[in-house]
Amino acid sequence: MAAQPRTMTLEIDDELHEVLTLMVSDPGPYQSVSAYVEDLIRRDMASQEAAPLTQLQVELVAGVSAPEPTYHSSSAAEVIPANRI
After folding, report:
1. Which tens digits make up the pLDDT trace of 2-26?
2. What's the Rg (C-alpha) of the chain?
3. CA 21, CA 32: separation in Å to the nearest integer?
4. 48-66 per-position pLDDT tens digit
5. Rounded to an integer, what is the distance from CA 40 to the centroid of its chain?
6. Can you tell me the distance from the alpha carbon of 55 to that of 48, in angstroms, rounded to the nearest whole number?
7. Are 33 and 24 in contact (CB under 8 A)?
8. What CA–CA distance (Å, rounded) separates 7 from 51?
9. Which residue from 37, 40, 67, 71 has the fewest beta carbons nearer than 10 Å?
10. Nearest-angstrom CA–CA distance, 64 and 70
11. Is residue 39 within 8 Å of 32, Cβ to Cβ?
12. What sign results for the dihedral spanned by CA atoms 6, 11, 12, 14?
């Protein structure tokens, strides 16, 4: 069963209104304000879902890029308890 559409009212300044008008007018990429807002929300949701993975990638790159003298041996028995959430 498809979700029922909801109605929203937006208050935006003139500059944002101009951008919105360009995005939904011919030959703009969107057919309607609704389509544009839905796409913005979906992109924001995807970005939020990807944020933890992006942070992990940053930390892994920093770790493997660290100078070798900063490495130290650790066993799984040491690492696991120290990193429990």
Report:
1. 789 899 998 999 999 999 999 999 8
2. 23
3. 9
4. 999 999 999 998 898 888 8
5. 11
6. 11
7. yes
8. 30
9. 67
10. 11
11. no
12. positive
